[in-house]
TrEMBL record:
InterPro entries cross-referenced by the UniProt entry: Asn/Gln-tRNA_amidoTrfase_suB/E, Asn/Gln-tRNA_Trfase_suB/E_cat, Gln-tRNA_amidoTrfase_suB_CS, Gln_synth/guanido_kin_cat_dom
Pfam family, one: GatB_N
The entry's keywords: ATP-binding, Ligase, Nucleotide-binding, Protein biosynthesis
Protein name: Aspartyl/Glutamyl-tRNA(Gln) amidotransferase subunit B/E catalytic domain-containing protein
PANTHER family, sorted: GLUTAMYL-TRNA GLN AMIDOTRANSFERASE SUBUNIT B MITOCHONDRIAL AND PROKARYOTIC PET112-RELATED (PTHR11659), GLUTAMYL-TRNA(GLN) AMIDOTRANSFERASE SUBUNIT B, MITOCHONDRIAL (PTHR11659:SF0)
Organism, scientific name: Felis catus (Cat)
Taxonomic superkingdom: Eukaryota
NCBIfam families: PRK05477.1-2 (NF004012)
Keyword Nucleotide-binding in record: yes
Aspartyl/Glutamyl-tRNA(Gln) amidotransferase subunit B/E catalytic domain residues: 66-337
Length: 358
């Protein structure tokens, strides 16, 4: 199935922040186009690292940025991934919660066939290899909106691996040159969504809505083949169009049906990659581009001032236009991964136990 192309996206906003160096490549996917001389060859922008726009003084080195994405898309299904509860946006709080969603003792998951079909269709459209056998794992962490204390996801053997996503960008002084770039897809996995925490600042309390708990998600993990915010936003828009064309997800970012986590680091060309930070829960392509570009410049400024970059999770404050720290990752969190094997042995393939609800 030919994926639709999103045309006419420009990297104009990146030029205010960065310039592109044509002299170096760092293992990124190739993109071809017509150079300014009219000869077909490697584009002077394609898959090149992001470099600071400030003029370099003698002895100073330029910076290259590396950006990878984790994209969570809500599957278009009438029921949740492992329960028969319905899926509706803006339903009354805690009105769509089954015993399994609330993690009551003795309840067992039953896999939704529609979610598996949606994952396979998406994997095929993104040129992925579909694993004939795919397993679920339990990822343990403790949040108030995760009543079970773990998330059912796929870590070791996901449903699809090794794909690619092509998208088009405009380059050149007047952005008249259109080139096609490719980002590698590491894997596509099925997983549960968590509930939602509603913070009431006036009463100093947090309320929990479990309507979203257990809703089926497609997580698309993109390799760090991008180098600026607008490039990442263009790739997300392209994926959004593909999901909508397939009908596997409505991908409405305003309703939280498509959320993005961005992993960002900077380094000098030719040197090892730097310490990365993660910007969580970006639900707008425009905010995604702004958050990445800000974080790139923040890390460059920190390093040039002799500071260290912390391996931390940050969020984007769209009112202030900057990222703010949420929690650090210096101590590696032990998720205690556990293979999920129950009475029905949840595997895809011969003898798989499905629920037929769509």
């Amino acid at each position: 199935m030919a994926a639709p192309m999103l045309r006419g996206r420009c990297l104009g906003r990146c030029w205010a922040l960065a310039c592109i160096d044509s002299g170096s490549r760092h293992g990124r996917g190739a993109a071809t186009g017509f150079t300014s001389s009219g000869k077909r060859g490697q584009s002077f922008v394609a898959q090149q690292p992001l470099l600071t726009a400030q003029k370099s003084r003698k002895g100073e080195h330029k910076w290259a940025a590396v950006v990878g994405l984790e994209i969570h898309a809500q599957i278009a299904s009438n029921s949740k991934l492992f329960s028969g509860s319905q899926v509706h946006f803006a339903a009354p709080p805690n009105s769509l919660v089954s015993f399994f969603d609330a993690s009551l003792p003795g309840t067992l998951p039953v896999l939704n066939r529609r979610c598996v079909e949606a994952a396979v269709m998406t994997g095929l459209a993104l040129n992925c290899h579909i694993n004939k056998k795919s397993l679920f794992d339990r990822k343990h962490y403790f949040y108030a909106d995760l009543p079970a204390g773990y998330q059912i996801t796929q870590q070791r053997l996901p449903i699809a691996v090794n794909g690619s996503l092509a998208y088009s960008v405009c380059v050149g002084k007047k952005w008249r040159q259109v080139i096609t770039k490719t980002v590698r897809i590491k894997q596509i996995q099925l997983e549960q969504d968590s509930g939602k925490s509603l913070h009431d600042e006036l009463r100093s309390q947090t309320l929990i809505d479990l309507n979203r708990a257990g809703v089926g998600l497609l997580e698309v993990v993109l390799e760090p083949d991008m180098s600026c915010g607008e490039e990442a936003a263009t790739a997300v828009r392209e994926l959004q169009l593909i999901l909508q064309a397939l009908g596997t997800s409505q991908a409405n970012m305003a309703e939280g049906q498509l959320r993005v986590d961005a992993n960002i680091s900077v380094h000098h060309p030719g040197e090892p990659l730097g310490v990365r930070t993660e910007v969580k829960n970006l639900n707008s392509a425009r905010f995604l581009a702004r958050a990445i570009d800000y974080e790139i410049q923040r890390q460059i400024n920190e390093l040039e001032n002799g500071c260290e970059i912390l391996n931390e999770t940050r969020s984007f404050d769209y009112k202030l236009g900057c990222t703010v720290p949420m929690r650090d990752k210096e101590g590696k969190q032990d998720y205690r991964w556990l293979l999920l094997l129950s009475k029905y042995r949840y595997m895809f393939g011969a003898g798989a136990y499905f629920k037929s609800t769509r």
